[in-house]
Amino acid sequence: MIEVNNLTKIYGGTTVLSIPQLVIRQGESFGLVGNNGAGKTTFFRLMLDLIRANSGWIKSKGTDVKGTTSWKFYTGSHLDDRFLIEFLTPEEYFDFISQIHHMSKGDLTVFYKEYEEFFADEILGKSKYIRDFSHGNKQKIGVAAALMAKPEIVILDEPFNGLDPSTQLRLIRILNDLKKNKGTTVLVSSHDLNHVTEVCDRIVILEKGQVRYDMAKNESTLKELESYFAG
Amino acid sequence: MIIKSFISHQIKESMRSSFWQKQIVLNILMGLLLLIMLAYLVMLGIMIDKLFKSIAPDEDPVVLFNGIVLYYFALEFMIRFFMQSLPVLNLETYLTLPIKKSSIVHYVASKSIFGVGNYLSWLVFIPFAIKVISPEYSPVMAWVWILAMILLVFTNNFLATYVKRQLAHKPWVVGIFALGLIGLMALDHFHIFSITQLSRDLMGGILRNPVMIVIPLALMVGAYLINYFFLRGRLYPDEVNLKKKTRTDSLGEIRYLKSIGLTGHLISLDLRLLWRHKRTKSLFYLSPIFLLYGLIFYNDPTFKMNGSFPVFIGIFMTGGIMINYTNYCFSYESNHFDTILANYADFKQYVRAKYLLAIAISTLCYVLTIPYGFYGLNILLINTATFLYNIGFLSFVLLFVSTYSTKRMDLSRSASFNYQGMGATHWLSMLPGFLLPVAIFWVFNYFKLPVGGYIFIGLLGLTGLVLNKTMIGVVTNQFMKNRYTMSQGFRE
Question: Domain check: are A98 and A132 in the same one?
């Protein structure tokens, strides 16, 4: 599904990301962990063609993402608040995103129905602009918008950040369901080791832009991760 | 002690503002411009008695000057009300520290005296006092007079900040102030009450009897105290920065735009962007000013209808707002630029939406300028030609150029006059667009072919309109080329 080859990104002389080779298969749930500045967000940004790599390429379904648009039709993403259009109401925003992805009115209604529980009466029908919502609720809006077009690939940067406990659990359930029942490829980064191990089957640790560990999840993964970051 | 650190924070805040972090050349250029402006003010101060002499040779310049003082402050008050930003201390930072509340309040209340606007008028009245008042009365009296003026400047400053603070709490206070001001103007206009006389009595009185300086002093202290007590009662952050109740509008529901596909949706998105931010909304308020330009100049009997200047006015009237929009249309989207890059598949449509909105704005302005045809067919011809030039040529040039603007513009920061991203480069980049048609016309006019000039300018625009698909393609390619740089700049 996604192939990375010889990818590097350099900011002001420092290499912030360097990945010689990485393949993410379809239906895989890929968890990216690492401390601040490890290059997680940079990696996702490169994957979404938001920044230019210094070398190498990322291919999505065999096409280089750089300068192409085909991947946008099956990739849903939410990295930070910059993915929201803050002067719209949530409804207007969802409507707009659905238009970009050529969804019908009916699709939109189904979406609202499906995410009713996730929104928990906090988002819809409030008649206020997204900029006036709290951080956690903005996060909900962004994550839901990333998932709404039923993408084949979902890219979420720190999706659990700022969410309340109930919503965190709901999101874990939603992501697991996407992976199991829809075969969606899920890419998630997180600081929270518990959440990552609950959602992802494969966990990659980035440190200073390098891949340190790349492992399939098993019972002892959480322990291993904890001891890695404790040391 | 605590005041000292407050002040040092204040200085650091302004010195470390991103305003200064521009290229050095630009800073020097801006500095020069500023110096020239300041020099003009000083010149005005030195020459103002000559000016009075040429208007009213028999009157004493001091009396005349004293007569306009209060008018000036009324005008300044209005300018302050609109332009002056409210000094907001980051209260949360200080409230939890063990600092006496009254020092915080004094600090917040007096913070506005650091505004540059307080000191500009000094450049005019100090030279005047030294040159005219000092020899006519005495050097000491000149300084007393200057002190009185300074006190009035700060009275004005505190009054304006108070009224502005009330805007969010008790809007009716602002209404009363406005009514009072208008009432005074009206009384003055109908000669029931003379502001001139009051102004002369006050300033002249101080010159006759220096003890009268207690009047401006009392005014200033009073104005300061109403600020002080206002703030004292509202030191909790959520009460100072009172948020207005949010309301949403239904701008997204324009049927027609919904029916023309994605381009329509993008236009409707941009419309909402313009309407829902203070800064962009002020564009709409400014539009009458652009449109009234003609009224000011065409009525002037010394204005040459056949010269190149009407061409300039034509561009300004039919394109002023469009130019403003196209210049910033990408940086306006700083806050959600990543959404655009990660989601939009067809950037041609994106650019086209911008272009269509620019045309629509310009067309609206053009239609509104048609009545100027009463001033002569000539004017109608010029405005038509410049309109075509604006929508067929200038708009593309500006869209192309604005892909180079990588200054982040955070519209959600809602200071009512937010000049972020309005660098000198922007103004300089607009200049050629204005000057080109003026130059073209000048050449044609030189050979006594004014109509040929209009036609040429119009044709330039028409060519662009015919080739609009190609032009949009060119802009789109340029956008794609610059998008990483833009995205990076918008994130800073």
Answer: yes
Q: Which of residues 86-125 of A touch B (CB under 8 A)?
A: 86-89, 92, 95-97, 99-101
**How far apart are alpha carbons B301 and B308 in whole angstroms?**
16
Phi first, then psi: give them for residue A214, nearest 5 degrees: -145, 100
How many structural domains compose chain A?
Answer: 2
Predicted-complex ipTM score: 0.81
CA distance B460 to B464: 7
Q: Does A130 touch chain B (CB under 8 A)?
A: no
Q: Which of A150, A171, A198 is the last residue of a domain?
A: A150
Query: By the 8 A CB rule, do B210 and B141 touch?
Result: yes
pTM of the full structure: 0.69
Taking the CA atoms of B115, B121, B122 and B123 in sequence, report the sign of the dihedral they define. positive
- Reference B223, options B153, B155, B147; nearest CA is B155
Among the partner-chain residues B246, B342, B488, the one whose CB lies closest to the CB of A129 is B246
A85:B488 CB<8 A: no
Say how far apart CA A52 and CA B484 lie, in whole Å: 7
pLDDT in tens, B186-232: 888 788 888 888 898 999 999 999 899 999 999 999 999 998 888 88
How far is residue B80 from each of residues A106, A145, B72, B160, measured CA to CA in Å? 52, 43, 12, 6
Q: Bin B148: left if φ > 0, else alpha if -120 < ψ < 50, else beta.
A: alpha
- Is the domain of A84 the same as that of A31? no
